[in-house]
Amino acid sequence: MTEQPILRVRGVSKSYGRRIGCADVDLDVYAGEVVAVVGESGSGKTTLLNCLGGNLEPDAGSIAYRFTGDDWQEFLTLSESRRRLLMRTELGFVRQNPRDGLRLRVTAGANVGERLMAVGARHYGRIREAAVEWLERVEIDAGRIDDFPLAFSGGMQQRLQIARNLVSGPKLVYMDEPTGGLDVSVQARLLDLLRRLADDLGLAAVIVTHDLGVARLLAERMMVMRGGRVVESGLTDQLLDDPQHPYTQLLAASVLTP
Amino acid sequence: MTNPAERVTNPAERVTNPGYNYAYLDEQTKRMVRRALLKAVAVPGYQVPFASREMPLPYGWGTGGIQVTASVIGPDDTLKVIDQGADDTTNAVSIRQFFARVAGVRTTERTAEATLIQTRHRVPETPLREGQILVYQVPLPEPLRKLEPRETETRRMHALSEYGLMSVKLYEDVTRHGRIATSYDYPVMVEERYVMAPSPTPKFDNPKMHRSPALQLFGAGREKRIYAVPPYTRVRSLDFDDYPFEVQEFDTPCALCGSSGVYLDEIITDDQGGKMFVCSDTDFCAQRVAAAGDSQGARDPQGAGGLQ
Amino acid sequence: MNAPALVLEGLSKSFTLHERGGVELRVLDDVSLEVRPGECVVLQGPSGMGKSTLLRLAYGNYKARTGRILVRDGDELVDVASAPPRRVLALRRGTLGYVSQFLRVIPRTSTLEIVAHAARRAGFDAPRAEARARAALSHLALPERLWELPPATFSGGEQQRVNIARTFAADYPILLLDEPTASLDAANAARVLDLVRGARDRGAAILAIFHDRDAAVAVADRFFDLSAARQAV
Q: Which one of A228, A244, B162, B202 has the minimum C-beta count within 10 Å?
């Protein structure tokens, strides 16, 4: 097959002084697929995600994107303005705590519309229409468009954060424990939504999670990290049902219902 | 009303203020402020940090504007100071007297006569001309602050010209009020590069900033920022295509001079709810009244007298 | 005879249990087997012989220790044991169908959507996928009132039928069936066997395990005895 990835990560490393954040990570992500990065706290999965999403500067490695126009762009050598533009248009970053990813002092509609305005949308009516459409897509009653995020439940806030990221039609979204801190029933709804959006939009996602159940349901491919390094990667179900590496075995065996 | 400048008749007297340097600030400080001003003029709309000094009046009374004025003023200048458009408010009178004493300059209430105008809130109705300098006293120089509390982040936004957040503010306005309800400190885009806070002038005056022949300098003492709009610089008020920028319109003309198309203040005239709308620019109003008196006799001498 | 759709060559599988001091469990050793289009091969042998393991290997769910698992995908033969994960995923979308004994689905998704989704992934457009989903669910006599509900609260038999409907709606050319009739009553088991025969007659290559002898006999073209395979080594 000659299919090309949209993200090609090679040898990404990041240390905090002498402590390893992540080391020598390779990863390819293709359009329309969800890849899970799993591991316990301190495994380096969040460090990796922050490097990919431009929140942290890796010490070494390459993060290449292939986006609209088909040309490869090295994320790490792009100018800061170009990088930030990418993060607002073709990329998204969903944070674990929706309060970190939302503007709490402005309404839900403005939260969703911000990315559009950031790239020059200057028609209030059309910005609002897009916001209504996206609220509905993430199953938030359009009647709440003028409410503030703090008036929403945790699950709704997370869905609002997702809408805020997806409104610009990104090709790839990074998600840091998107279902963490939510009740089980709320988690289920979010998982269902994420899966459907990924399917409908052909969206690619890299999801960091410590929850192997989430990884199994959302991601067809998975990467297991420990101590900053990738210990095993491949088909999610194979890694969970027939783990090869001792650490993956331990991880899979520790789950109640993987 | 007495013009303090009239008392200073002998130029030699101008520099005889023992204990203070000319125009109050020491020369080093003035040079520092001037360097910041030059940079501000070179990069229109960009907020230049400066080492704001303690001044003999509280923050919020125009310490930024005074430092700018003190740094550009010279013995040949004629100074006008307005507060809310009026030359006769406490703040305006104090600042005018201050510079009359420490810089020995002539002062005036007439826009046309002034070479240097320090203002809080208003741009004079009388069109400015080349060679004039308008110094704004600015309390809050950062237009993005209310939405983004982190200084590092707002600086980055300016650096990268990322102004989506400004539209978010206008979006919220339309959402809450059905229109862009911001009526003063209305954000402007300077020379299509930096978003700037006119702070706290009414949006009515925004169009006057656009391609003004005068040099416009902004000083924020507490926030330690200086910025500038050089003569003939483009100044565009931000808006939406379907909610375009528009200035306030007043239903009635000025009750004193009959002007329309000027910014009016509401004046309470008695305890029974009586009120009238008059020019906020007292100099402009007085000129109009005087002109009307010359040509056809005073129409409303009583009202004009009341305000004077 | 036509070329085989599924070829297992010298397939071995062992599990290394690192948590138990690296003890190695050998499950399959040097198994070779072919399944041709239009053929249903039923695996036999006592439990613990590795019948389910063999199906899981073929599906890529388990990782082979040695040997090849060649799957025909159009003109290409793909080795599941060594192909990159995304190639295996592509096979699973349109070529390899696998009915396990468990239904694992995203919570809150309706039964009809689960089944139609599989068909869409296999390449059917949305209306045809839904039509195929409805046909499969009807055939398996799953009450229509359940179609809009997520299967989480269904009985074991109902869930199993959703699982089967999903696989048959997608119309894969190769089917791996792990006790598809296990938790079904006689009438429903017969419906499933009906589907299996239908798929085989349309040319599917089928490798299956049945817990009950009658069901096996009803659909098998040939049996493959894993215990014999092991003794033959």
A: A244
Alpha carbon separation from C88 to A237, B263, C74, C82 (Å, rounded):
12, 73, 14, 9
- Nearest CB to A1: which of C15, C87, C117? C87
Instruction: Determine phi and psi for A235, rounding to 5 degrees.
Output: -65, 135
Q: Specify the pLDDT at position B6.
A: 46
Average pLDDT over residues B256-280: 91
Rounded Cα distance between C169 and A202, Å, is 23
The whole-number pLDDT of residue C63 equals 95
Check if the beta carbon of residue A131 is closer than 8 Å to that of residue A113: yes
- Tell me, yes or no, if B192 comes closer than 8 A to chain A by beta carbon: no
Confidence at residue C194, expressed as pLDDT on a 0 to 100 scale: 95
Q: What is the pLDDT of residues C135-182, one digit of tens each?
A: 999 999 999 999 999 998 899 899 999 999 999 999 999 999 999 998
pLDDT at C37 over 80: yes
B261 carries an active-site annotation: no
Q: Homologous superfamily of C40-61+91-231 in CATH?
A: P-loop containing nucleotide triphosphate hydrolases (3.40.50.300)
Flag whether pLDDT at B300 surpasses 70.
Answer: no
Maximum CA extent, chain A: 56
Backbone angles phi, psi at B139, to 5 degrees: -80, -45
A110 and B171: CB-CB below 8 Å?
A: yes
Residues of A with CB under 8 A from a CB of C: 1, 3, 30, 33, 188-189, 191-192, 195, 199, 216-218, 220-221, 234-235, 237-238, 241-242, 244-246, 249-250, 253
Average pLDDT over residues A210-214: 89
**For residue B174, what is the nearest residue in chain A, using CA coordinates?**
A124
- Judged against a pLDDT cut of 80, whether residue B283 lies above it is answered with yes
Separation CA A174–CA A186 (nearest Å): 20
Torsion of CA A98, A99, A103, A104, to 10 degrees: 130
Say whether B257 is catalytic: yes
